[in-house]
C-alpha cells in the first residue's frame, strides 16, 4: 500500500478522511469494521429516539452518499481504493439494518452477527461487487448488499421461529 499511514493526523487532515474512517473507528488496530459496526448501535438508537422514520432513512441515505464521496477521496489519498480503515460503509449499512430490526438488544445482537458474517465472508454477489466496483460507490454498495442479505435471513428466522422477540 502506498500513501500515508493511518493516524490521528491523517484522520483530521480532511473531512472526507474523518467520515470515511468512521469518526476514528477505522484507526482501530483490531477489526476496524467490527468496531465501526458497534459504533452504529448507539447512533441508530439515537436516531430512533430523535427522528421519525423519514428522518432516520434520510440520515442513512445522506450517510451513504457522503460515504461514497469520502471513501473515494480517502481511498485515493491512501493509495488503496478499499483500504481496511475505510469503515463508513459498515456504519451506514448497519444503521440501515437497525431501521428494520428495532432497538431490542437481542434483535440488534442477532442482526449484528448476521451482518458481520455476510460482510466478512462476502458470499455472491457481495464478492463480485467487492472485486469489480472499486472506489466510493463500490465500497458502500457491497456493504449495502451484505445488509440486505442479513435482513433477509433475520426476517426469515423471526418469521419461522419468532426469535428474537
Measured as a percent range, the helix fraction is: over 70%
The rounded Rg comes to 15 Å
* Structural class label: mainly alpha
Our count of domains comes out at 1
- Describe the largest sheet: none
Task: Please give the number of β-strands.
Answer: 0
Q: Poorly predicted ranges (pLDDT <50, ≥5 residues)?
A: none
Task: Tell me, briefly, the overall form.
Answer: globular
CA distance, first residue to last residue: 45 Å
In short:
The chain is an all-alpha fold and 165 residues long. Helices cover 74% and strands 0% of the residues.
Describe this structure in words.
With about 160 residues, the chain is mostly helical. It has one domain. The protein is built from 8 helices and no strands. Helix 4 packs antiparallel against helix 5 and helix 6 crosses helix 8. The relative contact order is 0.15. The model has no long low-confidence stretch (mean pLDDT about 95).
Layout of secondary structure:
Layout: H1 8-13, H2 15-20, H3 32-50, H4 53-78, H5 88-101, H6 105-121, H7 126-132, H8 135-161
Helix pairs in contact: 3-5, 4-5, 4-8, 5-6, 5-8, 6-8, 7-8
Keywords:
mainly alpha; single chain; 74% helix; 165 residues
